[in-house]
């Protein structure tokens, strides 16, 4: 344990390898490193990860070591609280949407302090094995074209490749073909054949829980990317897992304060619009939101998690010179989150009152 009260992880990397990473931050090439964690030292490899954050002074990393073990270390540079991702995944887990485990760590880099990071569990085969979930395939949604639509979001023309926006992580070429067929299948007109198809190929109840989580936490970027899709082994239905929830709880992905009403109650992607085209699904979704507003999405339910994270984080953040946000802003963030929950609850309740069909 570090003097800040967080687990300490250590990276040793030679200067030439580090410079090679910095010379091309958009590359996904790995560099060899020594990784020390839990009192053990491993031969490992490390790369820079993320989207717009790759150009930031403080980078985020992916680390691979041991027998296929993967860790994601997020700098959370835009989030003054450092907890929005962690709090979002905590919330998803409380509503029974399996989500990555997280913990905050103190990182040392070639013997020098590198500041606080959020360690995020990788969504991979080990993720499913730990939870005893059978998965036939796993696909990441990596850009806005993962919107389940037939239309390319950039050209506004029909997609030439329906797998555009996705990256197959586990599975075969047939897994890729099945997802393409699924996208084509849901883009038929609303009617009984579509209703039967959705019931056969999508875990609708689980999907609506994920939708509710994205809507309540306010992740504008979470509907057309930043999720993982897997085919459940027993049912052969698609299920969904959230990813990258830094822009939530009253701030966007760049850390700017935003309206608590930014995210529409019905979300934004084509699959959601197809599901909610059916009255039985709308009723299911509205009832789910009402239950979550009553029990889970309240400050009383969420405050203990915020307080626990802050109790561990505060001493380390106070001494972390790598952060762009002043410590005073960090201290004010629980109130920002509390106000967001209050305002978001009022907005959702009003939307539910007006949602008649």
Structure description:
There is one protein chain. By secondary structure, the chain is of the alpha+beta class. It contains ten helices and eleven strands. A hairpin with a 2-residue loop joins β2 and β3. Pfam families: CotH. InterPro entries: Spore_coat_CotH_CotH2/3/7.
Keywords summarizing the entry:
single chain; 357 residues; alpha+beta
Secondary structure: elements and pairs:
Layout: E1 8-12, H1 15-23, E2 31-37, E3 40-49, E4 60-65, E5 69-74, H2 84-94, E6 102-109, E7 112-121, H3 125-130, E8 135-141, E9 166-170, H4 173-186, H5 192-201, H6 204-217, E10 227-232, E11 238-242, H7 270-275, H8 279-295, H9 299-318, H10 327-354
Parallel strand pairs: 1-6
Antiparallel strand pairs: 1-2, 2-3, 3-4, 4-5, 5-7, 6-7, 8-9, 8-10, 10-11
Helix pairs in contact: 6-8, 8-10, 9-10
Following the backbone from N to C, one meets helices and strands in this order, namely EHEEEEHEEHEEHHHEEHHHH
Largest sheet: 7 strands, mixed, barrel
List the strand order in the largest sheet. Answer: 1-2-3-4-5-7-6
What's the gyration radius in Å? 21 Å
- What is the structural class? alpha+beta
Protein name: CotH kinase family protein
InterPro entries: Spore_coat_CotH_CotH2/3/7 (IPR014867)
Keywords: Kinase, Transferase
Organism: Paenibacillus oenotherae
């Amino acid at each position: 344990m570090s003097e800040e009260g967080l687990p300490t992880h250590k990276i040793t990397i030679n200067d030439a390898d580090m410079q090679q990473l910095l010379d091309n931050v958009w590359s996904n090439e790995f560099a060899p490193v020594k990784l020390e964690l839990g009192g053990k030292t491993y031969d490992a490899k490390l790369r820079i990860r993320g989207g717009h954050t790759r150009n930031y002074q403080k980078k985020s990393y992916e680390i691979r070591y041991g027998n296929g073990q993967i860790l994601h270390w997020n700098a959370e540079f835009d989030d003054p609280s450092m907890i929005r991702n962690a709090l979002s995944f905590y919330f998803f887990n409380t509503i029974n949407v399996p989500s990555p485990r997280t913990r905050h760590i103190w990182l040392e880099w070639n013997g020098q302090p590198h500041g606080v990071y959020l360690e995020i569990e990788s969504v991979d085969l080990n993720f499913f094995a730990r939870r005893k979930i059978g998965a036939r395939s796993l696909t990441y949604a990596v850009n806005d074209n993962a919107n389940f639509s037939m239309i390319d979001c950039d050209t506004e023309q029909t997609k030439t490749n329906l797998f555009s926006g996705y990256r197959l992580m586990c599975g075969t070429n047939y897994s890729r073909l099945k997802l393409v067929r699924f996208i084509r299948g849901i883009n038929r007109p609303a009617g009984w054949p579509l209703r039967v198809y959705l019931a056969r190929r999508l875990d609708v109840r689980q999907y609506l829980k994920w939708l509710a989580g994205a809507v309540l936490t306010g992740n504008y970027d979470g509907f057309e990317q930043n999720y993982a899709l897997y085919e459940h082994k027993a049912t052969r239905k698609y299920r969904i897992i959230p990813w990258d929830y830094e822009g939530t709880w009253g701030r966007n992905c760049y850390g700017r304060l935003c309206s608590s009403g930014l995210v529409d109650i019905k979300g934004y992607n084509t699959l959601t619009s197809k599901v909610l085209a059916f009255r039985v699904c709308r009723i299911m979704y509205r009832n789910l939101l009402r239950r979550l507003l009553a029990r889970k999405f309240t400050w009383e339910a969420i405050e203990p998690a915020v307080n626990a994270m802050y109790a561990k984080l505060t001493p380390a953040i106070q001494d972390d010179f790598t952060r762009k946000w002043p410590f005073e802003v960090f201290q004010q963030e629980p109130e920002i989150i509390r106000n967001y929950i209050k305002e978001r609850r009022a907005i959702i309740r009003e939307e539910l009152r007006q949602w008649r069909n």
